[in-house]
Amino acid sequence: MGRAITIYAKGFFVTFAVFFLLSFIAGSQASASGPATGVDAEILDLYGRIVDSHGTGVAKVEVMVEVDGKTVTRNEPGNHGPESGLKTMEDGTFQGRYHFPPGVLAGAVVKVSAAKTSYAGDSLVITSDKIARTGHEFRARADFTIKRAAGPAFWIAATVFVLAYALISFELLHRTLAAMLGASVMLVISYTFGTINPDYHILSYESAIKAIDMNVILLLMGMMIIIGILKHTGVFQWCAYKSYQLARGNVMLLAVILMSFTAVTSAFLDNVTTMLLLTPVSIEIALSLGISPLALLIPEILASNIGGTATLIGDPPNIMIGSYAGLTFMDFVHNLTPVCIVSMLVLFVYARIGFGREYGKARIDDVQLFINQLREEYKITDATLLSVGLIIMAMVVGLFLTHGYWHMEVSIAALFGASLLFTYGLVTKRINLLELVEKDIEWTTLLFFMFLFMLVGGVEETGLLDIIADGVLKLSGGDLTVSICLILWVAAIMSAFVDNIPFTATMLPIVAYLTEVIPGAESNVLWWALAFGACFGGNGTMIGASANVVTLGIAESAGHSIKFIAYMKVAFPYMLLSVAIANVWLLLFY
Predict the structure, then answer these.
(1) Which pTM does this prediction carry?
(2) Is residue 447 in a domain?
(3) DSSP assignments along 91-148, one per residue
(4) Within a domain: 356
(5) In whole angstroms, what separates CA 518 from the centre of its chain?
């Protein structure tokens, strides 16, 4: 036993000695081949920012450095060997420290080069007279611009994007599946061909996830849960009865009431939330009258996007514009609301022309008798759950209206309200968990939004939106009238087919620049042109705005679907008409 212990002890000490010797040798080699860290070593601190043609910082740009024609890599103390791969941060900034033997940097010429897929490579030469020196430490700043380039990734992304929208437009595939197919194709190409050749890299997994606006997704989910629970109280059927009672059998008046309520509510609530609340009501009203629910839902969709334009908080593009340009709530009210009111009056007439025949199909011989029947049929079935739900809903709406003060995303308010109501319903056994999750949450709609965000992220990453924005800048030529018309109409057409949030984000620096350099633009007219175009344009197609997708998704799940082209035939002409009204207003009063 003692001999065994002795053998183990000897083995342990031998192993420790060998390990110590190898570590010492490795450390000596690292010190010999590592950075020059002596007292006479020269240190170059290189920093700067790389932006695109709009002045926006470009993230993940590979920065390469040459000193007197020789490529160098970062050698920082504590690193064993060179640390390469200097890349810009999210705001386009970069910083690296380079160590050299004595006498290298004095009088040296530093060349900084930038490279990224879908961008034309560029470089900046920094001569010795522009390098600050303090003893053995040298500091140099490299700020420059890189421009977009239409390479393989650009054309592949644009093609996939167009094909996905074609599948959606002609309903060759369900819109959720088409969006998923397009997003997955972009990702697969990026990780196969893009690995072999970086020019084919479209979108990374991290960028795809980042492109998803989780505020929108979680807001929708939270409101779907709240609406799904309230639906079991009979409140929507009761609202259908009260709405018909107010209209006294006049279907056109009923449509006007619903459109007006939708517009006003959308001005102070997110229009997606508004449509989540009103869509079940409208379906119940239409079915009770014997007409197609789409005859009420489509005008409401148009009204929601018009009403959402009227205020700072009504539509996401307005929130982005107000934050970027420092515009107040009342600035939006004064400059946008009058046009929204005129557009709503036109919408009443347009709905009468477009859906008058469908409205005429409603036949109720005895209006009062039918009202009495509705009163008996559409009653509140769970007053307690409804009372709790309305209290929680009022709290959620209050948080929506004040979310700017709290610096809180609206999705947080929706999820908080949903969790409270969900918990109450489960504890009191007033709702069925499985039924709510399976039937009341529109999973296909949520997935469609997620994949659509990825699709748009792909074409945004490869520069399609930037190229369109650059075209607006060049075509304007410094003329205010041309700039107003270009920004308004390009934003409207693009927002009809592409999510208006990334497009608005791309246009912000362009409009800011034009506002500074074009005489007369100091009235902020270009900001109003962008707001009108981005918000009104969402009416053009069934995928032009979040409210459109949500409303038609609920209608489809209830058995009342509409094809992409059929919706466009009704909505696109009104979109053009409303944008034309805004165009005339902007040219006459600014």
Answers:
(1) 0.75
(2) no
(3) TSEEEEEEEE-TTSSTT--EEEEEE-TTB--EEEEE-GGGSEEETTEEEEEEEEE--B
(4) no
(5) 29
